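Title: Comparing notes on inverse folding

I've been comparing how different people in this forum approach sequence design from structure. To keep things fair, I'm posting one structure and asking everyone to reply with a full sequence. Here's the target:
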């Protein structure tokens, strides 16, 4: 018994340096692929494998970024996109959790909402965009409504599935403990359903940022999406690449932020993390 305990303790990565993850790999290993892509980009642009009008050098792209930042309204466009995403995400996630919880706790509510929401869910957000623009114009409100719709369904479905997926043993335990309705929800349903809900929230956050780019590009005169479509029309490839990089960095930051929140809220839950 003592030998097995000592082996287990020795196998734990407690003494591993901060620069090494649990698998024993350097944390910086994640930067290898981006550096390889950047190197390939540098090589292809300088050797003219692709015409400069289609693939400017990284140096020219960096110069374009500072030009957009200091001489154009790039910061205002960026903040406009962030504001729209935040509003749409808050409304969509809030409604998704609220209605998902109601449908998960009540079969009657699920039967009332289910057919209609399933039908609406099958219509892509892009298909709704022209109609919403006709109703609300090309201002921020139309984009907020589209993003709300995009975020709502993954959060709603994961909330519903999380509640309906609570193990039967937990339900039986609550009956043995004679928990009241609110105690049952707070002590059994919410902890058991939270992992599934957070998956929907994380997925919805990524969709919100992606959707604002499409919505602004197709119906707007401001925002990151508008800048992308304008740069494409004017063959400003350096500005186009700047916008793409910014979108990727912000999307990555949003995803990591939600992931950190998920790990914080689920720190009590242990699971398989890969080998």
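Reply #1:
Here's my take.
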């Amino acid at each position: 018994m003592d030998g097995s305990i000592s082996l287990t303790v020795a196998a734990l990565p407690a003494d591993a340096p901060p620069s090494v993850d649990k698998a024993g790999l350097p944390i910086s290993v994640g930067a290898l692929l981006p550096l390889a892509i950047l190197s390939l980009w540098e090589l292809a642009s300088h050797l003219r494998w692709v015409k400069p009008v289609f693939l400017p050098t990284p140096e020219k792209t960096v110069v374009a970024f500072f030009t957009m930042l200091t001489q154009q309204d790039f910061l205002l466009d960026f903040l406009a996109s962030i504001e729209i995403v935040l509003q749409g995400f808050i409304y969509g996630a809030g409604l998704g959790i609220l209605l998902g919880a109601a449908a998960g706790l009540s079969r009657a509510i699920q039967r009332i909402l289910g057919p209609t929401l399933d039908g609406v869910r099958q219509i892509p957000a892009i298909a709704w965009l022209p109609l919403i623009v006709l109703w609300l114009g090309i201002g921020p409100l139309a984009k907020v409504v589209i993003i709300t719709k995009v975020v709502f369904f993954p959060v709603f479905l994961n909330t519903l599935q999380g509640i309906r997926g609570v193990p039967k043993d937990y339900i039986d335990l609550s009956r043995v403990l004679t928990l009241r309705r609110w105690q049952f929800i707070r002590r059994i349903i919410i902890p058991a359903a939270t992992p599934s809900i957070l998956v929907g929230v994380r997925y919805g956050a990524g969709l919100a940022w992606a959707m604002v780019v499409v919505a602004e590009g197709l119906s707007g005169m401001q925002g990151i999406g508008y800048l992308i479509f304008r740069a494409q029309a004017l063959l400003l490839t350096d500005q186009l690449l700047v916008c793409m990089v910014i979108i990727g960095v912000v999307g990555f930051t949003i995803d990591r932020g939600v992931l950190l929140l998920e790990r914080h809220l689920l720190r009590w839950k242990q699971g398989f993390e890969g080998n």
